[in-house]
Specification:
Two copies of one chain form a homodimer. Chain A is mainly α and about 170 residues long. The first copy, chain A, folds into two domains: about 1-90, Winged helix-like DNA-binding domain superfamily/Winged helix DNA-binding domain (Arc Repressor Mutant, subunit A, Orthogonal Bundle), CATH 1.10.10.10; about 100-174. Helices cover about 65% and strands about 10% of the residues of chain A. The first copy, chain A, is built from seven helices and three strands. Chain A has helices at about 1-15, 20-30, 40-50, 75-90, 100-105, 110-135, 145-174; strands spanning about 20, 55-60, 70-75. In chain A, strands 1-3-2 form a three-stranded antiparallel sheet. The radius of gyration of chain A is 21 Å and the shape is elongated. The interface between A and B is large, with 63 and 62 residues. The structure holds a DNA duplex (30 and 30 nucleotides). Chains A, B: InterPro entries: Metal_resp_DNA-bind_regulator, Tscrpt_reg_PadR_N, WH-like_DNA-bd_sf, WH_DNA-bd_sf. Chains A, B: It comes from Gordoniibacillus kamchatkensis. Chains A, B: It holds the Pfam family PadR. Chains A, B: This is PadR family transcriptional regulator.
Amino acid sequence: MTDERELLVLGLLMAQSQHGYQINEFIEKNLGQVSDMKKATAYSILKRLNQGGFVEVSVEQEGNRPQRQIYTITPSGERRFLELLRASIATADNVTPAGNIGFMFIDHLNGQEAVKLLEEKMQKVDHFLGMLSLVPQHGHGTGVDLSIKHRIALLQCEKDWLARTIQELRTRKT
Amino acid sequence: MTDERELLVLGLLMAQSQHGYQINEFIEKNLGQVSDMKKATAYSILKRLNQGGFVEVSVEQEGNRPQRQIYTITPSGERRFLELLRASIATADNVTPAGNIGFMFIDHLNGQEAVKLLEEKMQKVDHFLGMLSLVPQHGHGTGVDLSIKHRIALLQCEKDWLARTIQELRTRKT
DNA sequence: GTCGAAATAATCATACGTGACTATACACGT
DNA sequence: ACGTGTATAGTCACGTATGATTATTTCGAC
């Protein structure tokens, strides 16, 4: 998890030098669908990256506004970025996709309630699918699009599985 | 994340009162495919649950062995369990399935390497799929089986997506 | 001109998760 | 009887992530 967050921050700095607020704004506004990293976390990651020599800090003053720390990726940081990127793409640690533990104990609920809750979940998945398909394409085959398509594919799969499972539970109850 | 872990521990205590070591052993040996929670984490969760009045502790001494803390779920704990269970089944917070951030930046690699890394990932997914299909069935339609089937479905979907994407990248490169 | 809301830019206290470590008891070979 | 590996049962120090908070500036409404 940590590595993915560092990768995200380094990736944004690969595009251009930025200050903390800018990074957070970008994540909030454009990547809300992709990362749930919080402001304070981004700042602490920037600090860590700086201590590791992966980014450099310079201070900027604009008008009367408070000082800002501008972060710039270093050559060492670019190497680190590629390292993390390769690891991220090539690995599949994939333990427990969130929400899976609950299924283990579903027998503690009666069939009717289980079905109702699964339907609720399916609706939420569907709603989320809707949000994602509204995200505009960035261009042909950019990584960002790939990433979005990946999420859509997984969510669609989740939705299908829920539909099948609900059917099964309904049948069994009879 | 925290909630899912609490749910897991409470769920195990719903089946029977247990001491910490027993819980950890069970998770390690039987749920390695389902949860990556570590020993120390389980102990700290038990402590928290105890402080919240969701489990009670009693001390047991068996022969000359060191004392053991036996944890028993309380009525309040059972309510909490159901609460967490319902929430877990009905929600779909699903932000960033691990490994997705990497795709965003895949353009920083050349096509050939990207394909190679995706193939590596696919192999790992496939290997993991193999492991999961070896897990013995617990019985007909128990939650545990449902949970495993869910993971298999998602992994299969991931594998298919990777295969499609690799094809696409190959085509594009030409 | 002034008052409150929103934007800007961050820090801090706190809780959570985990690798490393501690410590005892038993089994087994030699 | 002695070492030594493994099972038992847990604690602790440390790093990470985040909600809450701080502090200043700009802007629009009145």
